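All the exercises in this workshop are built on plain-text protein records. Sequence and backbone structure share a record, each on its own labelled line. The question running through the whole workshop is how a given chain folds. The record below serves as our worked example for the rest of this section.
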Amino acid sequence: MSRLRSIAERLVSLLPPRFQPMVRWRFIKFGLVGASGTVINIAVLYAAQEYLLRGIADFHVRLNYSIALAITVATISNFYWNRRLTWRDRTRNTPQPALRLFLKYVMAAALSIVIQSLLTKWLALHLHYLLANVIAIVLASVVNFIANDRLTFRRHRPKPPL
């Protein structure tokens, strides 16, 4: 475990100093949640494309629906675990209802969802659709982290006493 930690610390030290605190443990937690979301995304994409939506003859139309379903299920799972693990320290003192926070999460993730969808569709022209999806997820996850860190789960400054 300490060897893994030292490797991670070396990688973090290569980043500009401004980004180092942000990515230390929070980004690792985000990555673990994202990895589980990736597994869910790929499993749902495969199940939808090969079984659930098999009745849709056109591959690309079926892929559109399969991608939408996969992203939806993975987004719900990622929200739950990011709220419970990644940004737990920021949600404990936030009086926002879960639904409102989820809507902010979805809005913050919307750009990364669009990026993932478009990249998957484009890359699927050149690669197997599952490999295309994995590449798109990796690239879109950076946008997703920054958006959620800065918007959805941002630090709330205590209000000064009146």
Notes: The chain has seven helices and no strands. The mean pLDDT is 85.
